[in-house]
Amino acid sequence: MATMVLWAGVTGCSKSGPRALHAPFGSDSSWRQPIPPKPVIDSNSAAMIAAIQSERALHANLVEFGIPIYRVHGDKPGRAVECTGGDWGDCPFGDMSVPIPSDAVPNSGSDGAMVIVDESSSKVYEFWRAAKHGDRWSSEWGAVNSLTGSGWGGSSTGSGASRLAGVIRVDEVAAGKISHALALQTSNACTTFRPPAIKADGTSRRPDCIPEGARLQLDPGVDLHSLGLSKGVLAVATAMQRYGGYVVDVGGAPLSASFELDRSAAAGTLGKVYQDAGFRWDYDAMERVPWDKLRVLG
């Protein structure tokens, strides 16, 4: 995926112009900001991390919950998308003609997630529980976001983060470099949220729950190069030290991270790029990294 492409932001335009694929949001987006030295640590950080690290793991959502990303250039026939999620307000797809490729398939997980980036209109179409019915499409809900904004907006995730935001892409793993914050999920998400999140779908009322929108960081004092990490895991851990990750959704695991689904891979498999980078299977825990050294920023 070496082709340069204009990707950026979400609902609410940024002052920044479009960016290339390696920097998919505006320069002022929280997803692109490195964590400053000596950040404020949440007073309840130790308890929150202990709750999600009873077993050392940051699970890699590579296949079942991997995010299929389709890039189009205004050359696909438009399709109407019906929202079937109930009385949740106006359907984000409305009367739009969405350029869904004929070979588009949502992921196989319960989220039925799918992302379409239309480079000609600078829009990203994000689907939650998408389904195809003959030549028609439905989605329980989703979002239509601008590519020149902050990376937050709409309802394709529980927190209001763009479904594209923070996803670790196949080309980034191949290059061994991830230059943005990561999208994280936890089974211990609070009913509350904090900025930059705009809402929450968490259900946990435990005192050690983590609010959606919270930013987690791997202690930058950890010497990652002494751990014998594979190329892919090293890239993830390095990004978690420099950029951290935002809790954007409820997940089935104590802690997981979103990856792009490798659509060139055989069904149910990781694909060559992920395997060559050292990932072993779907939900790889990346347990050689001391994830107990994570901290929640205030």
What does this structure look like?
This protein has 298 residues and is an alpha/beta fold. It has 2 domains: 30-66 and 165-296, no CATH class; 69-146, no CATH class. Helices cover 10% and strands 23% of the residues. It contains 4 helices and 15 strands. The strands form 4 sheets. Strands 1-14-9-13-12-15 form a 6-stranded mixed beta sheet. β6 (114-118) and β7 form a beta hairpin. The chain is globular. The relative contact order is 0.22. Mean pLDDT is 90; it is low at 1-21.
The total tally of domains equals 2
Uncertain regions spanning at least 5 consecutive residues: 1-21
Helix and strand run: HEEEEEEEEHEEEEHEEHE
Structural class: alpha/beta
- Helix content, binned percent: 10-25%
What's the pLDDT, averaged over the residues? 90
- Spatial gap, N to C terminus: 36 Å
Radius of gyration: 18 Å
At a glance:
The protein is built from 4 helices and 15 strands.
Question: Secondary-structure blueprint of this entry?
Answer:
Blueprint lengths: L44 H8 L6 E3 L7 E4 L5 E2 L1 E3 L14 E2 L14 E5 L4 E11 L2 E11 L23 H6 L6 E5 L2 E5 L16 E3 L2 E4 L12 H12 L2 E6 L5 E3 L13 H5 L17 E3 L2
Parallel strand pairs: 1-14, 2-6, 4-8, 9-13, 10-11
Antiparallel strand pairs: 3-5, 6-7, 7-8, 9-14, 12-13, 12-15
